[in-house]
Amino acid sequence: MAKENRTELRGKVLRLADLVAYQDGTVASRMIINKPVGSITLFSFDEDEGLSEHTAPYDAVVTILDGECEVWVAGETHQMKEGETIVFPANVPHALSAITRFKMSLTMIRE
Q1: Is residue 12 classed exposed, middle or buried when 0-12, 13-18 and 19+ CB atoms within 10 A define those classes?
Q2: Whole-model pTM?
Q3: Phi, psi at 96, each rounded to 5°
């Protein structure tokens, strides 16, 4: 998403789940904030899509906006649904997979 489009979102009441559309057979994303101190990115995952296990150098906050997914953090499995949030600690392996189509907000806090 171009910076100009992100600027258009400022000062408006938003429903985050409406800002990223589902796309058949894939994962879609839309960055709504990107600053040196952190970013907020929205994702939509089609059924059976996910992100493989990885680590990130920063803490990340994931909030489910729609649907259901399964999340793994440091070997522990969690089922998550709309309205639930989890914090992925920096440098800890994590992954996620769609149970149904789902949307999420990812907030990265850089140190």
Answers
A1: exposed
A2: 0.90
A3: -150, 155
Compute the chain's Rg from CA coordinates: 14
- In the DSSP assignment, the letter for residue 7 is H
Measured CA to CA, the distance from residue 50 to residue 105 in angstroms comes to 14
100 touches 108 (CB < 8 A):
no
Q: Any idea which residue has 């489910």 for tokens?
A: 64
Residue 1 has pLDDT above 60, yes or no: no
Q: How many C-beta atoms lie closer than 10 Å to residue 52's C-beta?
A: 7
**In the chain, what are the domain boundaries?**
3-109
Tokens of 95: 């992954």
Domain 3-109 in this protein, CATH class: mainly beta
Q: Is 3's pLDDT higher than 70?
A: no
